[in-house]
Amino acid sequence: MCSIIGYKGKNFAAPILVDSLKKMEYRGYDSVGVATFDNGGIMVRKGTGKVLEVNKNLAISEMAGKIGIGHTRWATHGGVTDKNAHPHSACKNNIAVVHNGIIENYKELKEELTVAGHTFASETDSEVIAHLLEVHHGKGVRDAMIQTCKRLKGNYAFVAVFQDGTIAGARYEEPLIIGVANDGYFISSDVLGFLQYTDKAVFLENGDICIVDNSKLEVFNFEGTPVAHPITQVAWELGDIEKGKYAHHTLKEINEQKITVVHAGRQDEEIISKFCDLLANAKSVYITGSGTSYHSALIFKYMLAKFAKIRAETVMSSESQYALASIEGDSVLVAISQSGETADVLDSVKLAKNQGAKILLIVNVTTSSLARISDAFLSTNCGPEIGVAATKSFTGQLALIYNITDRLCKGCLATARAEFAVAIENVIASQASVMRVAEQMKDCTDIYLLGRSIHYPIALEGALKLKELAYVHAEGIAAGELKHGPLALMEKNTFVIMLNPHDPTFGDTISNAHEIKARGATVIGISDRKDDVYDHWIEIPQLKEESFYPIVEVIPLQMLAYQLALAKNADPDYPRNLAKSVTVR
Ligand code: AGP
User: Fold this and answer.
1) Alpha-carbon span 104 to 109, nearest angstrom
2) CA 58 to CA 46: how far, in whole Å?
3) Are residue 386 and residue 252 in the same domain, yes or no?
4) 85-115: per-residue pLDDT in tens?
5) How many domains, in total, are found in the chain?
6) Active site residue: 23, 392, 467, 580, which one?
7) H helices then E strands: how many in the chain?
8) Is the CB of 499 under 6 A from ligand 1?
9) Is pLDDT of 239 > 60?
10) 583 lies in a domain?
11) CATH code for the domain of 54
């Protein structure tokens, strides 16, 4: 949820750290801070706000020193205040720490440290790390890191700078990656933190500690035993994380979908065959994900049942500790995740793995923790998704799901898949109707989205986009449930979006639209067929294969949420209170 970065090298650290934090800001963005080491001392500058704003106010990038650490925060323990911003220092200002994760036993540690005479400056759980390092620093940095990690419970990745100019990091259940450049080292929560400087990375494993001292790198585990990890070449193109001509990353990513769905459909023959074999031969199939990725899971379940005759059970990752508590050993769990770092999804995977299940993964970040623990993974190949709201990663997941299903049904969807790219291009090009609807809806307080069958997950996904980007109450409802309760909510000021392409669900959903309209609500139809019942019609292209409608239905909803966010002066790339990658429980 937070981004952390450390640098030790031949260049001035502060401008590099600020640049890295800007690139990783999507991970958390309520406060920013940097500590640098120079002339035998550690300096800290930190405050609330976004990277560029805090840098402007505090001139962070002008800080001296070629060694430093930096952080952007997504608050968990303690409010959004300057004092709670990282880095946190130990009492003697001889150590400063940045942390991502949650220290579960921080209260008892804080009590113990306070009794021992330590003074705390913040309300955070993270500050205990700095004080523990100080306590154990007598025998040097190595021992301090080992002893501190042994005392911490919870999940964490942290990087510390010490008064001798050493930087060190440790990871437990949160990602931490070392960037190896010609003129220095990075320790970062994300490859995007250093990709501009080097594409050579060392991925630390759970329970690893690293120390960069005198320009040399040392990695060992919590017992002090050296561990060796290969240097991996990271493939992503840096240009992908720039906004280019677009006002926001989210808008760029919505527009990119015409290309990303094509890329997601292209897979290595051998890997997709292995993936499909494991899936087809499993005794039981479970599919899990969080948020948007869970909506993909719902569509995957539908596709598997209809075309591959495979029955699967979907489990929201946050519910998996109950739903996956007892599964057969010859099961397969398909996990879906853009980031590959979502804590709830990692928990589901570990739970299933411990019971002997095989793990198949659909992921965008192929260097992620989930990719490293799965039995086989397929990449959505979307490139970095920076906007907090999932857009291109969702349609990428769907395109990949269609590809997998096509394999399993021996090519039954192959011809129809060719129509994707053109259909998406047409939807993206016809934004006028979405703009008109956005204008009508800009002050509305309640939006309901209705769909049946495969359109129901899109009703849920559209509602999620509207909530997170436009801060409006939005609810996805299975259209058949209307008369079982939600109809009571329909009145003059409600807006109802019907997901209603001309497929077997069309007639029933049109009947619902009449029932809603009769109660005075405004009805918006997203359909390839016009109907008089719609107050507003958002046209989508007609598709040969009805199971592919979700991919063209969701794009107008993404655009609507984006437009409504702008109308409310909300930043679509950085919705309030949210972070891109939810690595805490
Ligand atoms: C989607 O717009 C959200 N930002 C969120 O629901 C997201 O899909 C969820 O946190 C899962 O993330 P993942 O795909 O990276 O696991």
Assistant:
1) 10
2) 8
3) yes
4) 999 999 999 999 999 999 999 999 999 999 9
5) 3
6) 580
7) 19, 24
8) no
9) no
10) no
11) 3.60.20.10
